[in-house]
Amino acid sequence: MQVKFENDPTPSAATVTRPLLDWYDRHARDLPWRVSPADRRRGVLPDPYRVWLSEVMLQQTTVAAVKSYFAAFLARWPSVEALAAAPSEAVMGAWAGLGYYARARNLHACAKAVAAEHGGVFPNSAAGLKRLPGIGDYTSAAIAAIAFDEPVAVVDGNIERVVSRLFAIETPLPQSRPLIRHHVDALTPADRPGDFAQAMMDLGATICTPRRPACIVCPAQPVCTGRRAGIAERLPAKLPKRAKPQRRGAAFVAVRPADGAVWLRRRPAAGMLGGMAEPPSSAWSAKADGALGPAAAPFPGDWRRVGSVAHGFTHFDLELDVWRTETAATPAAEGWWSAPDQLGTVALPTLMRKAVTLALKDRKAST
DNA sequence: GAATCGTGGCT
DNA sequence: TAGCCAAGATT
Hints:
single chain; alpha+beta; Endonuclease III, domain 1; 40% helix; elongated; DNA-binding; DNA damage
């Protein structure tokens, strides 16, 4: 007796794409940058500026973290021309805390390019979009599909996980990427490519989650090869990561007694926290050496150690010693005094904000 | 192709 | 807790 085809279906446009789009019609997440499937059926497409802004913010960043930044950017810069005309310091300041600051530099460069070279109109194809700063394989495809309904394969981390499970791909990432892309190409529909991409991402974010996927309510469960094989939860396979080294550095927070202003400077445009503000800081070395004391300060002063802050970066952990001094004299160095009421909007990355906060807390406690 | 580049939340 | 993870791009 032969097994009937219906009892052993395979992931395909008929068995995955259509059920998933039906599921999306009922369960799409309501997100500030999104047009609902109902409205899209009426011909409404989202503003490419909003799609682009959200996609760049969402690179390696959670929806929850992005929401307030998206609202703030949109309120302050309602169009790509407005963003293009903004000072760099304002853009970096508004991005502060969101991380991966090259994104903010590229975001601004991209806005300027669209305004100056494209008449303020985003290219309407993935190929055109990918030529712009900060827009790579994923983001170009996502904008083209979501904002223009171009039938291109969109592959992000969610979709890599969903497809790895659907097809029981045991080859670890990133080697499995070509095969995953092949499957996404075959599943992407010509009629609703934007909704399909968003549906796959919603599925990955809410049901086909990294741990403990809710297969019982998954619209693709009947055809999921990984589920059938009992290996879905441990897919996608990934290569082991290297251990994170520990580094150490020092930050020097000078405070002006008259008004409590803090002396800040701008980091070089390239590299770690590029273009962001900081109190003068040492380099971050692999081990603590003698250079971490007041001798490493950018200018002489009555430096007192007030403690340290710990911060985890992607590829190393940092312990930053924080030193504080009071000085009325403007230092003979590059930088500026930032008054207390300005500190909230200055482009301080989280690490440096921690350091400044610790120094000011110590100052308040010691007076 | 591998390394670089942040941060906050979750388990 | 310590590790893992999130709508990746760039060099």
